[in-house]
């Protein structure tokens, strides 16, 4: 369990969250190319990797006994994976970000068009050099569709390169139908499981579930749905039953009661809740 935190916004007090919930590990979002679009890793496209404020937040994670996960990509901005046309250059930028965070855990969140071969070659170089644990975070198209064709192509490239990865399904922002959002998220995650099994054909169901993670957007989603604590509990219970590798959510910055009117905000969930309700719930996840 390592929820996402918008590390450059300054809207999440890591020490307070850790103290209140016992949560230690966090996924730092997002590393992007710099504002000029060059192949230079920055936090959020504008903040240097060695920024002192970001470093202080990372220090709070390690002081709590936690591990930071470095996440690249995301919903917007110029991707390193686009700006770095050379796989070697991309691998070097991944390594620079990991070194700055004191981490060997990399999450690559791909929601834009990238050249899969370049990304996979860079990740293979990184993993061979330092044994980096790598997660590929990919959008979910729906309860039936599962992963998009582009995401499946990325996974196929990873499998063909013998890259060891986990697959993080973004169970958010799709049409869940009428069954209820908690059920819709688990149904969509099952569709993702089937897609992953179609790529790694030699693995058992247990092994495939063990390669998967799920990440909902808590509270009011950008479109289609609202994730309540009850919906999150449904997804979490399913993840524990199936033996998933991990759970995350977007984001701890939003895990509060600051806008209970349905607003879509980066700093509050949009629903009535107690502060840190989702972090407290997800922190109980065990496999």
Automatic annotation (TrEMBL):
InterPro entries membership: GH, GH18_Chitinase
Highest taxon of the lineage: Bacteria
Coiled coil ranges: none
Database matches in Gene3D superfamilies: Glycosidases (3.20.20.80)
Protein name: Chitinase
Species, as recorded: Paractinoplanes deccanensis
């Amino acid at each position: 369990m390592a929820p996402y935190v918008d590390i450059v916004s300054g809207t999440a007090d890591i020490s307070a969250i850790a103290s209140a919930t016992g949560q230690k590990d966090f996924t730092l979002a997002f590393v992007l190319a710099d504002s000029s679009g060059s192949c230079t890793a920055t936090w959020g496209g504008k903040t240097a990797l060695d920024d002192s404020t970001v470093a202080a937040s990372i220090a709070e994670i390690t002081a709590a006994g936690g591990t930071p996960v470095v996440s690249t990509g995301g919903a917007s901005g110029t991707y390193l994976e686009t700006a770095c046309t050379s796989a070697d250059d991309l691998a070097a930028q991944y390594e620079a970000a990991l070194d700055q965070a004191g981490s060997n855990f990399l999450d690559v969140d791909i929601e834009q068009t990238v050249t899969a071969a370049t990304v996979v070659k860079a990740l293979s170089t990184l993993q061979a050099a330092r044994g980096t644990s790598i997660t590929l975070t990919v959008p979910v198209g729906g309860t039936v569709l599962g992963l998009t064709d582009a995401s499946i192509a990325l996974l196929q490239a990873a499998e063909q390169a013998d890259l060891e990865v986990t697959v993080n399904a973004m169970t958010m922002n799709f049409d869940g139908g009428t069954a209820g959002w908690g059920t819709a998220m688990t149904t969509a995650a099952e569709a993702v499981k089937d897609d992953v099994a179609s790529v790694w054909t030699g693995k058992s169901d247990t092994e495939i579930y063990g390669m998967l993670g799920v990440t909902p957007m808590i509270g009011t989603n950008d479109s289609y749905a609202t994730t309540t604590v009850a919906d999150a509990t449904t997804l979490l219970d399913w993840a524990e039953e199936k033996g998933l590798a991990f759970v995350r959510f977007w984001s701890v910055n939003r895990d509060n009661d600051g806008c209970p009117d349905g607003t879509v905000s980066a700093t509050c969930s949009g629903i009535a809740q107690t502060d840190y309700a989702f972090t407290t719930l997800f922190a109980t996840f065990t496999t």
